[in-house]
Amino acid sequence: MNKVNLKDIAKHLGISIATVSYVLNGQEKERRVSSATAEKVREAIHQFEYTANQIAKSLKTKKTNTIGIIVADINYRFTTHVVRAIEKECQLYGYTVIFGSSYENPETFLTILNVLINKQVDGLIVIPVDNDRGYIEQLKSREIPFVIVDRVPEGSDLSIVSIDNKDLAYQCTQHLVKTGHQRVAFMSYQTGLSHLLDRKAGYVTALQDADIEIDQNLIIEIDEKNFVRGVQSGIDALLERGKSCDGIFFTTDTIAVEAIKYLNQKGIRVPDQVGIVSFDESDAFPLFHVPVTHGRQPLRQIGEVAVKMLLELIDENTPKGNTILKSTFIVGKSCGEK
Amino acid sequence: MNKVNLKDIAKHLGISIATVSYVLNGQEKERRVSSATAEKVREAIHQFEYTANQIAKSLKTKKTNTIGIIVADINYRFTTHVVRAIEKECQLYGYTVIFGSSYENPETFLTILNVLINKQVDGLIVIPVDNDRGYIEQLKSREIPFVIVDRVPEGSDLSIVSIDNKDLAYQCTQHLVKTGHQRVAFMSYQTGLSHLLDRKAGYVTALQDADIEIDQNLIIEIDEKNFVRGVQSGIDALLERGKSCDGIFFTTDTIAVEAIKYLNQKGIRVPDQVGIVSFDESDAFPLFHVPVTHGRQPLRQIGEVAVKMLLELIDENTPKGNTILKSTFIVGKSCGEK
DNA sequence: AATAATTGCTTAAACGTTTAAACAACATAA
DNA sequence: TTATGTTGTTTAAACGTTTAAGCAATTATT
């Protein structure tokens, strides 16, 4: 038994499809459907449990009430939290979410982009792919509203949601200094991505403001290809005698977790031997023997704002721009705090 | 400038829409389009970068190449891993994924169900909502192919992907016994859900097989409403003098993590004072000072199999049934293993 | 030479909606 | 009386595809 459609309802009531449609779309007043007819229609709709075929509707109205989101990998803490907020917010506004993962692969990214566009999504939220350069041009040439999350590319006619990476990195570094660490190291990925450059700038500025000289030996930048080994040899290098490093600022939670594992393994005591601060938290932190001091991005808010910006963009009544959200700083005990 | 459609292509070439469509769908042979014409069409398609409007296509073919998945919360380890596999598998077969979260709320679940059905998804994968009873009837009455993951409801004309919960729980318990623990406790949620009942059965059977008497005092079942307190008072109860509990089997990773946090906090040494095993792992385990022995569900495989079953169901050439996947058991050092 | 088969296309209906435009019936105003 | 409005409804085109059916031109068969 096939789903009942407008025609079925109309035939059953002996009226035209148009009339039924008007009632359904709340246009009885404008289209002067008599209240008797309207009532009949409502009854029939209820009786037959009619629900509109959104595909047909979309074809006609050119609106799918669907947004696409392209993430790097759903299996990241950042992603799940942001996606969760996006989906919640969309539920609120009657939008649904189609999603695809690029797995950091630019080609996959473009494939997904095409699929989503052919599905006629009303807009896109993009959590960018590392190392991908051309996607913004592709997006722009498609004339589809989109919002970029997290990463701030050049070019200002874009809609972007991000946080002040430099500021939060500044706070992280400053906290290490304030808790008595003199030789504060920096551990990050080897990359040209804006958010990580900003974090480095925050680190540098904080040290300068504290009149501490920057020591290039304390700056470790890891090749992602060789992640685990990179972290380990980075830690080894930092903690070798002579360097007298007494604090480390990790620019991502992934690096922090891997480093903490290794510190655990080597029996290095935190915070006694070395104080640590992480940019971003990890669900794993609570299992470490001491609460890890860290910066916290407002992931939920990032998702919410991204959706709001996108929906405004879709409704065409908004200027584009970069929305910068406030982060918070969570003080634990990994720097020897009282 | 609007997207180019079949009509544009046809007009440009001075041929009919039908011919273009036939070429596009690889029906040149059957429909006897001359190779000259076909070539012209292909060129034009390329030149204008034509891509089909999937909405129109779907309306006609009644196929959206989209599946819906309803999860409890994207923010769970189980969910992200399964969803990741589902999406990867779908990419392979040219399907896209629409998703919605029920947040454990049956009403939200039904709302999402309706939205997805109106979007004409070809099928559904459902990671069930705790405490929801009616959803299966709702699903069945909708005559839409669907696969249930993880939880095994009564009624056998369903397609289900699950693991052998009893068997894996048996292994977990047996391992505690084999590593010298005599007074093995069980900590789970207070629930009637099949997978947790099965895990309890595994625990009981393992002890019986080892000729150890079941002690109701060592069985803790936590009210989810009061989760953190429940875990803590459960641990307190188990470790109080007199009970001489020397091992605990946690039936979920969430319970295990919360318990480990509390053990940490209280300074209780694992595995010296108490050995622990967890059903399911957590990304947090590596930060614990000792590797946690645990059962591992084949999450990726669960996702893959769910998709395969669903696509077969959609193509109508498959019997339904319960596919039970093999789990593995990861030996750490949390039971005092050498 | 007449008929049949093949080739290469086109026509047009259909999918389930929305919506501008038309229309019939009646009421009101001049 | 004629024109003018108002009310309640229907008609039909359109959205961008797919696809069965039709048809003219050419080629093959008898």
Strand adjacency order, main sheet of chain A: 2-1-3-4-5-11
Structural Rg of chain A: 26 Å
Mean pLDDT of chain A: 93
- Could you tell me how far the N terminus lies from the C terminus of chain A, measured between alpha carbons in angstroms? 70 Å
- CATH homologous superfamily label of the largest domain in chain A: Response regulator
CATH topology of the largest domain in chain A: Rossmann fold
Structural class of chain A: alpha/beta
Number of strands of chain A: 12
Largest interface: A-B, 49 and 49 residues
- Beta fraction of chain A: 15-25%
Summarize the structure.
With 338 residues, chain A is α/β, with parallel strands linked by helices. The first copy, chain A, contains 12 helices and 12 strands.
Please explain how this structure is put together.
Two copies of one chain form a homodimer. By secondary structure, the first copy, chain A, is of the alpha/beta class. Chain A folds into three domains: 6-52, 434 Repressor (Amino-terminal Domain) (Orthogonal Bundle), CATH 1.10.260; 63-163 and 299-325, Response regulator (Rossmann fold, 3-Layer(aba) Sandwich), CATH 3.40.50.2300; 165-298, Rossmann fold. Chain A is 43% helix and 16% strand. The first copy, chain A, has twelve helices and twelve strands. Chain A has a six-stranded parallel beta sheet, with helices on both faces. In chain A, strands 7-6-8-9-10-12 form a six-stranded mixed beta sheet, with helices on both faces. In chain A, helix 1 crosses helix 2 and helix 5 packs across helix 12. The structure holds a DNA duplex (30 and 30 nucleotides).
